[in-house]
Design brief:
single chain, mainly alpha, Growth Hormone, Chain: A, 18 helices, 0% strand
């Protein structure tokens, strides 16, 4: 029954890329989230300089960021549960509106010559908590604002928007910090959250089944039932596994091993690292454009597994020849494959997971990524004390290929 449902819905969701943009709900959503994520990029660049300008020092900055990250991770399950109970759009709206208020608190603090550490923590913790509440809802909201046939194209456009904002946000933040006071960047960040909440308010979602009825029908009212569902459903179980392994591999590779590789092996330093990151960003956009096409293939599940395995092999090609061109090309290829696979599996999850559990399932997905982040950075940093970055990069790529290879042994996952 589940396989029939997946097959029927997948035939509907390989729509053309511009199609969702003709829908007012999605156009509003995309515009608001683009501004919000550009604001996140501004915040990412601005916060360290706020701390350093106010005499906080790197140690205090690390404490503030750790508190923010811990609060965000802790509140991911809360966000998933609220999205299932109250609806994804209202949760996103409230979280963005409250984040605007919290960021204004940062702006007020920048008026002081020295900022006590406890006040920065008092602002960073709720900001992180609201981010954790927002994320699962943002993953679960799309089926409510686009037609089923536009779902894959919508995910593709969101992936492109995210890649674009990761470049534009930090670049704008750096410009603001370089030419104006850091508080101006934070003020702009607060405004982007406010605009995002207003666009969400303007959206009138499509009619959905009453959440309580859906939860009762599917027997997914409690977290225990959702965890049981996730562990017994091949699509969810394998997606959680590949998300965990990919982030364990990729974070340490990109943020720890690659800078050292660029410095020591390539002799190109920050410039070489920047070129490689540009290749990664371009690959993400290219792969997102291809995502909807994968949904239209007959053996799409098998093809997705092959692409995921190939992604890991592409990562192992980064250090080949110690060439910046080769490393950039390998990152472009790996990122394009990853983005294509992301669009595919996100769309399948949004279609297959019962509406009353989608927020909590998405919070599990975000938690896997969140837990892997510090673990990956720590593992890579520890390994690089004794081994060459080439080894770390190759092991990371093989780990990604191995994770996707497990999917070949699951008939339901292979035949999505």
């Amino acid at each position: 029954m589940q396989e029939d449902r997946l097959d029927t819905t997948a035939k509907l969701i390989g729509g053309r890329l511009p199609t969702p943009l003709r829908e007012r709900r999605f156009a509003l959503y995309l515009a608001g989230q683009l501004l919000s994520q550009i604001g996140d990029g501004i915040y990412l660049v601005t916060l360290p300089f706020v701390m350093l300008d106010q005499g906080g020092g790197p140690a205090n900055l690390g404490v503030v960021l750790a508190c923010y990250g811990a609060a965000r991770l802790a509140f991911l399950p809360v966000g998933g549960a609220l999205a299932d109970r109250l609806g994804a759009r209202p949760v996103m709206l409230a979280a963005d509106a409250l984040r605007a208020v919290v960021v204004l608190g940062f702006v007020v603090l920048t008026a002081y010559e020295r900022i006590p550490l406890w006040t920065m923590i008092a602002v960073a913790v709720p900001f992180g908590a609201l981010g954790g509440i927002f994320m699962p809802a943002s993953f679960a909201v799309l089926p409510q604002i686009v037609r089923p046939e536009s779902l894959a194209a919508g995910n593709s456009l969101i992936q492109i928007m995210q890649s674009t904002s990761r470049i534009a946000g930090p670049a704008l933040g750096g410009t603001l910090v370089g030419s104006l006071r850091s508080g101006v960047g934070l003020l702009i960040d607060a405004i982007t959250f406010l605009v995002s909440s207003l666009t969400l308010l303007a959206i009138r979602p499509s009619q959905q089944p009453v959440e309580a009825a859906v939860q009762h029908r599917d027997g997914l009212r409690t977290w225990r039932s959702v965890l049981r569902y996730a562990s017994s459903t091949p699509l969810v179980r394998m997606t959680l596994l590949t998300t965990l392994v990919f982030n364990l591999a990729a974070v340490g590779l990109i943020e720890v091993a690659l800078p050292i590789f660029a410095q020591d092996s390539l002799g190109r330093g920050a410039l070489g690292f920047g070129v490689m990151m540009a290749g990664l960003g371009a690959g993400s956009v290219a792969g997102a454009l291809l995502g909807p096409a994968l949904l239209r293939l007959r053996r799409r599940g098998l093809v997705a597994l092959c692409l995921g395995t190939a992604e890991g092999l592409a990562m192992t090609g980064i250090p080949v020849g110690s060439s910046l061109v080769m490393a950039t090309a390998a990152l472009f290829t790996a990122a394009s494959l990853q983005a294509t696979v992301n669009v595919f599996y996100m769309t399948m999850l949004q279609q297959a997971v019962p509406a009353g559990a989608l927020g909590r399932v998405m919070s599990l997905l975000a938690t896997c990524a969140g837990l892997a982040y510090p673990a990956s950075a720590l593992l890579a940093g520890t390994a690089l004390r004794t081994v060459d970055p080439h080894i770390v990069i190759i092991v990371a790529g093989l780990g990604v290929s191995a994770a996707f290879s497990v999917g070949f042994f699951s008939g339901p996952y292979r035949n999505l």
